[in-house]
Amino acid sequence: RTGDTRAVILSELKASASLVLLLDNLETPWNAQGAQAELELFLRDVDQIPHVTLFVTMRSSAAPCGDLQWHQVSLLAVDGKASQEIYEGWHPEGRDDPEVQRLLDLIGHIPLAVILMAKVAKLTHLSAAELAEEYNR
Which of 64, 71, 80, 108 is the most buried (most CB within 10 A)? Predict the structure, then answer.
């Protein structure tokens, strides 16, 4: 093994069977100062591996590596009442938490994000305010 993390990852991907590589919240490394060039190189390298499908989630109006072919899907938000119902459906104990609506505003009322936050709250017993603090960290 080499000390080059990118090379190690690419080697493992090339040696693997068909798979989907999920890069969730890609905006985090994408927006890091000085990281875009290296990330673009990595994405282009992965794109060249025929048996690897790249699945990226990121909050952005523009896809990275504009020359690559991307299939974009916009996730639509629901209104505050609907997101509250989704949250409470997954985490009924959060029904009386006065900070839930602020948390839901923070995550944009995107149903998948609401479900994930509710599941984390249920598993960790964190309040909506604590989840918001963690989210902002």
Answer: 64
